[in-house]
Amino acid sequence: MQDPADEPRGAELRRLLDATSDGLALVRHGVVVWANRSLARLAGVAEPGDLVGAALADLFIDAGDGLPGAAGGSVRCRLARAGLEARSVVVEPIDGGGSAGRTALRVRDVSDLHTLEAEVLRTGRALHDANREIASLRERLRAEAAEREELLTVVSHELRTPCTVIQGYNRLLLSEQFGPLGEKQRHFLEESQKSCQRLNSFIGNLLEAARGGLAVGPLEVTEAPVAPLVEAVAEQLAPLLAEHALRLETDFDAATPPARFDPPRVEQVLTNLIGNAIKYAPERSVVTVETRRREEGGRVLVEVAVCDEGPGVPAADRERIFEPYVQAGESRQAGGLGLGLAICRRIVEAHGGRIAVTPRPGGGSRFAFTLPAAAGAAPAAVAGAAR
């Protein structure tokens, strides 16, 4: 490489050498005789001429590989900068020929590379620590899940066993095998029996939510009319309806087709919805259960609705009440965990249906859910075309 300072030399060559991003220097006997602008910028000086006359021993700091020019090869060292922090650079000879003692050097800034390497190292350590923390959390969650399962087993046994015993004795006494009962005695025993049933339902909802995250599990689907199931649930809840001086009416549309559903699961939904209606409906009012045929998105559905004349559900809470452990309005004073409607939604959605609450005309609430119709129920447009 010829000395850019030697004549003849043109401005074009100088511009070319100044434009390169790497620092360039021409050294004679260990002293800089020419430098480009990139090297001046790296060294923190205003002009390349400020570096002329500087000894390599003053310009570079040994970082363990020695100083440039001493070993004759590429050297990793630090570039001194007046009043500034030294920069990590790699210096390598690019032309060792020419006049005796003359060497051309290329200086590459590797400070950013070192920073990146350090950042990668820090990130790697942080990732390692995070993985260890995740492993620890997983182990802790596994242990907590095992403890929770053991607690649930104990709770189930310790609560349900005395409940079963109390119900057994109640049934024996109500049968009057051990003597006749007075009116008040029978009333008290019946109230005790109802309380046991409510407690059993409460425990069942709690265990189902805690064990399965409200998971429904596999369905055993059959095709059947919904009306008989509604009537069976109404009969089971008849004592509770009478206790609250309520009347249950049914409105089964004749056009309602059979549905595809798991009877025990849908019975659970109906029991929850009618039970809620009984809880909030005023005395001497009517709870109505309706069935209708509906079509939605080309599908035939069976809609079942439970209507009451209670206080209704505020608009802001009509979606939230189907979330676990959420209670709204007067339901907070009615007791419970806020799991019944969440379980209803999981069951209905597992069937491919939807559940929602809307205001009942005249006051109260209308809780409606849909089930898929049996295979033989065709949409109206298709049925009309077939005829």
Query: Ranges with pLDDT <50 over ≥5 residues?
Result: none
Structural class: alpha+beta
Please, how many helices? Answer: 10
N-to-C series of helices and strands: HEEHHEEEEHHEHHEEHEEHEEH
Shape call:
elongated
Distance between the termini: 97 Å
CA radius of gyration: 43 Å
What is the share of helical residues? 40-55%
What does the main sheet amount to? 6 strands, antiparallel
User: Order of strands in the sheet with the most strands?
Assistant: 2-1-6-5-4-3
Number of DSSP E strands: 13
* Beta-strand residue fraction: 15-25%
Mean pLDDT: 84
General description of the model:
The structure is a single chain. With 387 residues, the chain is an alpha+beta fold. 43% of the residues lie in helices and 22% in strands. A hairpin with a 5-residue loop joins strand 12 and strand 13. Helix 4 packs antiparallel against helix 5.
A few lines on this structure:
This protein is an alpha+beta fold and 387 residues long. It has ten helices and 13 strands.
List keywords for this structure.
alpha+beta; 22% strand; 387 residues; 5-stranded mixed sheet; single chain
Summarize the topology.
Layout lengths: L10 H9 L3 E6 L2 E5 L1 H7 L12 H4 E3 L12 E7 L2 E12 L6 E8 L1 H64 L8 H30 L9 E3 L2 H10 L1 H6 L3 E6 L6 E3 L1 H18 L5 E11 L2 E10 L31 H11 L4 E5 L5 E8 L7 H7 L1
Parallel strand pairs: 8-10
Antiparallel strand pairs: 1-2, 1-6, 3-4, 4-5, 5-6, 7-9, 10-11, 11-13, 12-13
